[in-house]
Design a protein that fits this description.
430 residues, alpha/beta, Aspartate Aminotransferase, domain 2, 7-stranded mixed beta sheet, 16 helices, 15 strands, binds pyridoxal-5'-phosphate
């Protein structure tokens, strides 16, 4: 495969953009390559500027559950463009969007739209602190909740990939109120509550961790988080920026039958445009300005173009509940295929799957905690990634990210992926 144009584009980008990219993981640094630059994408396929075509398992890191450039969600966008792109005063589609989310997620009575997942979690924490009149928050090692200062501690995703789980520039006074506990470890949460019981405003958790690969939370662990926050008058915040509308129509809250106090959304609810949201019990949400004293605002929040893309996406998911069965069936097909390869090559690799979310770890399982996941062999993953790329399969350019499937990934795509994965694993483990 020829990557000449992408290489040139990257050299040019590096002159004007730090690291040549607008989000670190895009640099492909951890897999030892220059990034590919994209020309266009359709369905499950993405095309780079050198004309190479790939089956895409990044799918914009989650928003594109209906695949790239889906005709049904794009339809009508020109009309909205023609009318106007942003008003700074309300539009009816914002209410339609809020109603859809409220109807889909029983723990959400009211929801506020923002522009990213980072804004959603940051605002949710501010609200939790104001509501409880407490200061500290608990997060879990390996969970990523965006890049706001207080949450950039022992984080996941690109911070794991680049070995900077706590960033310089984050003021120590900001993070002294962030307590980091161990994912799936009830004792670590117990200990935190013993020490700071009167001052814990909230626990924020990814109900399925999607930023240290894919790691499922034990049901008992999630139930415990619900109970201990109730007992201590703290709030439970589910960060469903990845899992919302992906794990099921009602997200992880529906799958695990747990009602958090606040839920954060992003990705799918923007259908590929910049969107986030946070919602929860009316009594809590009504503390936000202009009803209450908790300030949070946004020039482009509830933007009509973004609302259109998100609304249409959610509408299609609502009308076609079988989409979730299909996503899971495809994920199982990949999982079983990877497992067969692992067995026949007799290599130490592990597949984690939760519904339609999955990850292939280059290491021996069980991959059920941050410590275990960190034992993965990232060098082997780099080789695997490069071999797959050269065969026209775009996997996430980092070990600690899950694969994103869409309705547009065909059985043929998956079979091809598995065929090439065998060769790539063989080379990576040679
Ligand atoms: N929360 C989770 C679980 C995420 O995976 C992400 C991003 O990947 C975020 C929050 C931050 O969202 P954004 O990148 O839209 O700011």
């Amino acid at each position: 495969m020829n990557f000449k144009k992408s290489q040139q584009a990257f050299s040019e980008a590096k002159r004007y953009i730090p690291g040549g990219v607008n989000s670190p993981v895009r640099a492909f640094k951890s897999v030892g390559l220059d990034p590919i630059f994209i020309e266009k994408a359709k369905g499950s396929k993405i095309f780079d500027i050198d004309g190479n075509c790939y089956i895409d398992y990044i799918c914009s890191w989650g928003p594109l559950i209906l695949g790239h450039s889906n005709d049904r969600i794009i339809k009508g966008i020109e009309e909205i463009f023609a009318k106007g792109t942003s008003y700074g005063v309300p539009t009816e589609i914002e209410t339609s969007m809020a109603k859809k989310i409220v109807e889909a997620v029983p723990s959400v009575d009211k929801v506020r739209m923002v522009n990213s997942g980072t804004e959603a979690t940051m605002s949710a924490l501010r609200l939790a602190r104001a509501y409880t009149n407490k200061n500290k928050i608990i997060k879990f090692g390996g969970c990523y909740h965006g890049h706001s200062d207080g949450l950039l501690v022992k984080s996941g995703s690109g911070t794991l990939t680049y070995g900077i789980p706590t960033s310089p520039g984050v003021n120590s006074t900001v993070i002294e109120d962030t307590i980091v506990c161990e994912y799936n470890n009830i004792d670590s949460v117990k200990k935190a509550f013993r020490e700071y019981s009167n001052d814990i405003a909230a626990i924020i958790v990814e109900p399925v961790a999607g930023n240290m690969g894919v790691v499922e939370a034990d049901l008992d662990f999630l139930k415990y988080l619900r109970d201990i926050t109730n007992e201590n008058k703290s709030l439970l915040i589910f960060d469903e920026v990845i899992t919302g509308f992906r794990l099921a129509y009602g997200g992880a809250g529906e799958v695990y039958d747990i009602k958090p106090d606040i839920t954060c959304f992003g990705k799918i609810i923007g259908g590929g445009l910049p969107v986030g949201a946070y919602g929860g019990k009316a009594e809590i949400m009504d503390m936000i300005a202009p009803l209450g004293p908790v300030y949070q605002a946004g020039t482009l929040s509830g933007n009509p173009l973004a609302m259109h893309m998100g609304y249409k996406t959610i509408e299609i998911l609502e009308e076609n509940p079988k989409i979730y069965e299909e996503l899971e069936r495809k994920a199982v097909k990949l999982e079983e295929g990877f497992k067969e390869h692992i067995a026949s090559l007799d290599i130490k690799a592990t597949v984690n799957r939760v519904k339609g979310m999955l990850c292939l770890f280059m290491g021996e399982g069980p991959m059920d905690s941050y410590d275990q996941v960190m034992k993965s062999d990232t060098d082997k993953y780099s080789i695997f990634f490069r071999e797959m790329l050269n065969r026209g399969i775009l996997f996430p350019p980092a070990q600690f990210e899950g694969l994103f499937l869409s309705t547009e990934h065909s059985d043929e795509d998956i079979e091809k992926t598995l065929e090439f994965a065998y060769e790539a694993l063989k080379i990576a483990y040679n």
